[in-house]
Amino acid sequence: MNAPSAIRVGEAGLPALVFLHGVGGDGGTFSAQLDAFADTHTCLAWHMPGYANSATIDPYDWDGLAAALIALLDAHHLDSATLVGHSIGGMVAQHAVALAPERVESLVLSATSPAFGNRDGDFQQQFLNARLGPLDAGETLASLAPGIVDNLLGQNPVTTARDAAIAAMAAVPEASYRAAMTAITVFDARASLPRIACPTLLIAGSDDTNAPAAMMARMADKIPGAEYACLDGLGHLSYMERPDLFNTTLRTFLDARTGMTPP
């Protein structure tokens, strides 16, 4: 498998950080994290298959996405890394750690879920109809992006977050958005949570209605030794809404693993 493309910055000796974005953007949405951590870590922000200049995969499924992530680690000569997965990126990270735990140094799950909906399929179909129906009717991601982003943000974003999130979503290829949304509806990693053995941090936004804080707290309880942080006033895009708070939370977790004193 050809490795996905990625933004790579920093060549520090600490465990590499690999940032995995959500459905509505690519690796460039992690610019504030790349800037913050390049002095201490080798940092990669992947472009998920089908995003930016990464080739898509067929079938577009969880085994394929996890294999693409492992191929990325191999291409960058990383035996293991800390995975920082946001939303669907957090789902990819969960699947990857279940398949190849030796490749995951530690795990950070942001605004994500261990499963999607119930098992009868009705909720999944309603979800797809709501997300893809407007595209079927002739809308574009560029026209839909402002309304979608407004529903993702919490009460306390920095002023530039909305514009950046809208621009990122508008640039997503429609075929990749459709494939990713469809993949989400069959995700279920609940049985794997108790088997996660690496240090793990879950980061929720108090205003997130897509991956609610209470759900993420319950998810943390299922992972042995997992830490949980809830960022007040933030929504689904906390790493973009208030990168200062997100980065401080992430750095505290990472520094505890390495014995460093937070700056």
What does this structure look like?
- This protein has 263 residues and is of the alpha/beta class.
- The chain has a single domain (6-258), classed as Rossmann fold (3-Layer(aba) Sandwich).
- 42% of the residues lie in helices and 16% in strands.
- The chain has helices spanning 31-37, 62-75, 88-99, 122-136, 141-152, 161-170, 174-184, 213-222, 238-241, 243-258, and strands at 6-9, 14-20, 41-46, 81-86, 104-110, 200-205, 227-231.
- The chain has a 7-stranded mixed sheet, sandwiched between helices.
- Helix 4 (122-136) runs antiparallel to helix 7 (174-184).
Quickly list its features.
single chain, Rossmann fold, 263 residues, seven-stranded mixed sheet, 42% helix
Total helical elements: 10
Multimeric organization:
single chain
Strand residue percentage: 15-25%
Lateral strand order in the biggest sheet: 1-3-2-4-5-6-7
End-to-end CA span: 39 Å
Number of extended strands: 7
From the alpha-carbon coordinates, what is the Rg to the nearest angstrom?
17 Å
Q: Uncertain runs with pLDDT below 50, 5 residues or more?
A: none
Major sheet summary line: 7 strands, mixed
Instruction: Provide the helix percentage.
Output: 40-55%
The assigned CATH architecture is 3-Layer(aba) Sandwich
